[in-house]
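User: My advisor, Dr. K., asked me to get a structural model of this assembly before our group meeting. I'm new to this, so sorry if the format is off. These are the inputs:
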Amino acid sequence: MGSNPLDTKKDYQNYVDQKSPNSPILKNCFNAFWVGGLICSIGQIIMDICASKGLDTQISGTIVSIILIGISAFLTGLNIFNKIGKFAGAGSLVPITGFANSIVSPAMEYKSEGYVMGVGGKMFTVAGPVLVFGISASIIVGFIYLIFNTQTVPLV
Amino acid sequence: MMITLLECKKFYNDFFINFQSERVVINMGIFESIDLMQLLRCFVVGGLICVIGQVLIDKTKLTPARILVIFVTTGAILGGLGIYKYLVDFAGAGATVPLTGFGNNLAKGAIEGVKEYGIVGIFTGGVKNAAGGIAAAVFFGYIASLISKPKMKK
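Assistant: The format is fine. Below is the predicted structure of the whole assembly, which you can bring to the meeting.
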């Protein structure tokens, strides 16, 4: 029965490799590049409009985040964002749109478990770690800055 | 009576002219404010940051959640080292919109917090800077989840 390609583990692996298409990494990277670039460009246009209204960079950046997060949250809710995500991969995951998507996707799936623990709790399946590591890193950065700049910093 | 009429006319003229000119200024502002070279730099840098993420997805077995964590943490470290702000100066939203920019924003806030409030600033600065994004994500995320229809699982 050695003719069956599924007999041994190695043969099976060869069979799978043969059948599955080569990971089209170049195509994925190209799609990620232009979709990611486009999302950032939308942000840049919103930022330029804010700047032309006389808002400073910090608040313009916040407005850009809020708008992009709002749009991608609702696109995820309408099942449109995951289609973009399938096509663009990291192109829509790495911009802040991916953060909003990572909140809405699990919340949608666990909606049947209720509006408090289902939606409210599962929202943070992915966003929770992001916030934990992001905020912790910022606290460490602040702490290191405090230690190495004590001469210029008022200690409390 | 004459005075009031005159005043009315003056007020109307002032208002009308100001209104007109302001509209023109704002319209011109929106079109002129978009710097095409800046937009191109933003597109290229933003795209390249996403390509790094795509390579991580394709070449390693990292889950998307871990990739988001890696990007935010990397951004915070680069922001803390003062490197990331050069990228922001160069690429604008191309550097602030990816999650590395979110991390940079947190770290920048923590440093500003320390400058302003000392030790307490370590804890208040970061989240204060990113508050808009976090609050928007929580609120819009919850509302969007409520109005969504659950996907049918296979």
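One thing worth pointing out at the meeting: Chain B has seven helices and no strands.

User: Perfect, thanks a lot.
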